[in-house]
Design brief:
Shape: globular
Oligomer: single chain
Order of helices and strands: EEEEEEH
Structural class: mainly beta
Helix content: 10-25%
Distance between the termini: 69 Å
CATH architecture: Beta Barrel
Radius of gyration: 16 Å
Number of strands: 6
Largest sheet: 6 strands, antiparallel, barrel
């Protein structure tokens, strides 16, 4: 009997987006998101298995206001994309805040630093 290679199926449908993303050592561009993970581009690749924190604002959630996404994830795929690195992470934790709450939290943090 012949074994067939199958592509790994994602756990959740992917939704296209274009949004700036912040990671510990830089910034990139998110390209798609699902309930289980996120795919984004960075200038430099990350190592497989690495755990990292990401932050981005989801603007196109009509009729809802923009939402800040804070997540931790494990790098499960790295690929080369026209001189950049494509990174796929599987979420290990996710938190959403509306943009007003996030702005207030950032202002409080700035006040504490002064």
């Amino acid at each position: 009997m012949e074994k067939r290679k199958t592509r790994r199926q994602t756990r959740s449908p992917r939704h296209r987006l274009v949004a700036p993303i912040e990671v510990p050592n830089g910034r990139g561009l998110a390209r798609n998101i699902s309930n289980s993970g996120l795919f984004f581009e960075l200038a430099e690749p990350l190592e497989l298995g690495r755990t990292l924190h990401v932050s981005l604002i989801l603007n196109d959630l009509h009729p809802m206001p923009p939402v800040q996404l804070e997540a931790a994830g494990r790098v499960v795929r790295v690929e080369r994309l026209d001189g950049k690195a494509g990174i796929a992470i599987e979420f290990t934790s996710v938190r959403f805040e509306n943009s007003e709450t996030w702005t207030a939290l950032q202002a409080e943090e700035l006040e504490e630093q002064v």
